[in-house]
């Protein structure tokens, strides 16, 4: 490092290198707010030590964000800035919305993203508050400092370049589709949870779809970036973590099969969050952090100490993942290379460290790195400034997120993700519907409503409540209760036909009504019925107008199968524009005459027939090289044979004169060939002579 710095200085002095306007430094370590000590502490991830403290009273349960020269204690109702060199409080400002924001520590930042309010606050230089125009899903940022955000209401994919004050939206998901953003190769990629696909985001909109090969629930959450060529997607409703091969985004070959990892049933999860080689998730129910590699192998499981609300995940710029206990008493440091986890006891460090003073831990041993220069800057006098202004009063909670509902027999099961508490603990969730309401505890994430009328649609609304009041409600789509073991609904069928008589059929998965899909029954007029596991099929030899039908077969547990409602579509095979042709390529002797032809139906289904004298062959489907046998015929010498072909486009014919060939290939012009009836006559004549 010294040699590199001297070289840069030498280049600058000699004028051989341009001096940048501003050097960008990667932020090292992580800041956490400790409730007991009423202070922000810096955790050095490389040494797993607490090495700095800044007193910021009255900010319980808060997050801390760091920029180049300042740190920010982020509460629901105020943002308090402190100087990272002097560790003294500078000023406090109000946020644009009374909710808990998503923190991003990136170049040009940090940024606070108020997802419900649709506001992005840049705390770096120049500071700004940028309206997004609507609620946002979890954002991502590229290394150049560009923030990418997805509008949850409109589906727009928007970017905010470093230093900009206005967002632009170059792409958009289809109407009604949900999704989320991630990074692949430092470029934005959108996950379409409705279409189960990935798309690159470019200046001209969304790129080609890469199918995931799995079916996702609407609440699926994608990781911030790829790991080892795979992208982590958590589907908590199905208790699975999927690792998707993303090579198909840039290369013209099929993607490898997804790797799926089973998660603990009944748990709530936060994440996934990725580093260079590790995927981390928090099991909020069990209070554990889980780490996986790119192949889905579990690397470690560690308990997160502390009491209160679930722990928080944060990605550091130093390729580490930090897990804060809710009260800031502990920070778990996840190594971004191998997934190992180290618990840093912040409470213990707080008891031996005063504001502005370095850590009281013993000097590092010879195998530990020396203290950084930043530690010397922290040898500042104790903070003598006035305490920050008192915290603003709490406000009603934000709206619950990801509200969903599924039907049962006279019941509806409702689930949701937590609402922002906005300064006061959520004490309850109120669930309302037409004709009733119920109230559940503040830690609940779902409930089942019973006593409903089957066949009647219900819209369920969920609102959070704290000491300041009841927040805004969030609703799920209308759900119709019904008895269990109901057959599936009707698929939506699409069918296309070619002049060659090939019909291609595809369909959408219908409402399975709680059952498990076994297979589909697919039929086309005149072609019987097939059992199909996929969502498409092909039929050949179809003529005229045909009806395609598709039905889903489902099963409930170990019970018998149920056949669902029929989805259908009529399709007409188009008539070819050109008449068919036929060419006789030879005539052979068999059990009669065998006429060999080449048939061309010009894209349509064809039938062929051969004729010799009054004898004709059976009508036969033909295409390309075809043999037409004429039975029970006799001939002497040369013969004249005709062949005809018929399609919906017209009729064609050909004739041939010559001596048929024997099976051995010897010409049969001198052979007198008699049919079976002639042979019978000869046998009777011989019997009379013997008598």
Automatic annotation (TrEMBL):
GO MF annotation, one: hydrolase activity, acting on glycosyl bonds
Keywords: Carbohydrate metabolism, Glycosidase, Hydrolase, Polysaccharide degradation, Repeat
Keyword hit for Hydrolase: yes
Alphabetized Gene3D superfamilies for the sequence: Immunoglobulins (2.60.40.10)
Family matches, as InterPro entries: FN3_dom, FN3_sf, Ig-like_fold, Quino_amine_DH_bsu, Striated_Muscle_Regulatory
Keyword Transcription among record annotations: no
Segments of this protein annotated with the region Disordered: 350-417
Residue ranges, compositional bias (Low complexity): 376-386
Swiss-Prot/TrEMBL GO biological process terms: polysaccharide catabolic process
CDD domains: FN3 (cd00063)
One Pfam family cited in the UniProt record for this chain: fn3
PROSITE patterns with a match to the protein in the record: FN3 (PS50853)
All residue ranges annotated as the Fibronectin type-III domain in the record: 396-484
UniProt-recorded name of the protein: Fibronectin type III domain-containing protein
Lineage: Bacteria, Bacillati, Actinomycetota, Actinomycetes, Pseudonocardiales
